[in-house]
Amino acid sequence: xxxxxxxxxxxxxxxxxxxxxxxxxxALSTVKSWKTRNKWQRNNATKKKSMHTKSKSTRTKPKxxxxxxxxxxxxxxxxxxDKQKAFCLYYLQRYNATWAYQxxxxxxxxxxxxxxxxxxxxxxxxxxxxxxxKQQSQDLYATANDILLRYLNQATSNVTxxxxxxxxxxxxxxxxxxxxxxxxxxxxxFRYVPKIDPETGExxxxxxxxxxxxxxxxxxxxxxxxxxxDKGEAVVEMEDRQKxxxxxxxxxxxPEVNDGSTTSxxxxxxxxxxxxxxKDDNEDx
Length: 285
Prior knowledge:
The chain is an alpha+beta fold. The chain has eleven helices and seven strands.
């Protein structure tokens, strides 16, 4: 049997990555790469047995490692050492190179700030970060097109998606003080007298413009930036449509206008999205 096949047998028997690597004199990443490429799978019984197996106690201080940002099967890379890989993992947690360096290597802020810049300029670091980001995007099940579709939704949203507008017509009345009037307020009794329009001789009227919030079950809340009640009225702030449009226009192909007229934004955007999808489909194929 080859070294890799022997390693597989040990892995399926419950042996840890680091122990397999030490036994066969290979890098830890090599063992993980064997496991990933050849799709080694332990059965549940082996996993349980492995989890409950006690390891020998040591007095060695445990190494500080990066948080579990990605699955255990990290991209294989023999160019970087463990601390450099830990730096990359910490960097992807906050996108703060100085903080990532301090977490991986320790030391003062000044030293970390200086060394982090050199780390980020390292070709091996940049390559590994690219691989990690690609793996993260697969785990998130999100693509650039998903984000663009979100911006397209924002760019084409309208306040009428959230609010209802209507106008009501009301007859106009005078409020006349009358001690025998049917109504009462702080000033005493009163009654209402129709207000007559001198031009028509008929009762005058006025219009009231009403704005109401739609039922929550009918609202797409993803396009609402904030909503609050001010003096009993709903105040709604939508996501910035102009910002969303600009982001889309920067990303999408320039619309073709041959007749000098203004092409509608929606047609331009949806046409551009179709081109992007077509381009991505061709690349995937």
